Amino acid sequence: MIHVNPDYPRMMFHRTDEPVTVFSEEEEAALGPEWSRRIWPAAPPEDPQPEAPPNAKRRKPAAQAT
């Protein structure tokens, strides 16, 4: 008799990669801990630059010594 696991296939989700389909517990474990059965919001940009207010004065670069 063939044992059919009702949990597979299933979709696995990552914050920065496309979803993948796994067909066994072994395939799911091989993805690693950064993969989830739940959809996560997209990861924020790695180094967001704060936006300067529209009335902010820009600093001039210091004059180079000669």
**Rg, Cα atoms, Å:** 24 Å
Summed over residues and divided by their number, the pLDDT gives a mean of 82
Output the helix-strand order. Answer: EEH
Strands, count = 2
Biggest beta sheet summary = 2 strands, antiparallel
Shape: rod-shaped
**Structural class by secondary-structure content:** little secondary structure
Strand order of the biggest β-sheet: 1-2
Query: How big a fraction of the residues is strand?
Result: 5-15%
What gap, in angstroms, lies between the N and C termini? 87 Å
**Number of helical elements:** 1
- Unreliable stretches, pLDDT < 50, 5 or more residues? none
Helix proportion range: 10-25%
Describe this structure in words.
This protein has 1 helix and 2 strands. The protein is low in regular secondary structure and 66 residues long. The protein has a domain at 1-42. Strands 1-2 form a two-stranded antiparallel sheet. The termini are far apart.
Give a quick rundown of the structure:
The protein is low in regular secondary structure and 66 residues long. It has one helix at residues 25-31; strands at residues 10-12, 20-22. It has a domain at 1-42.
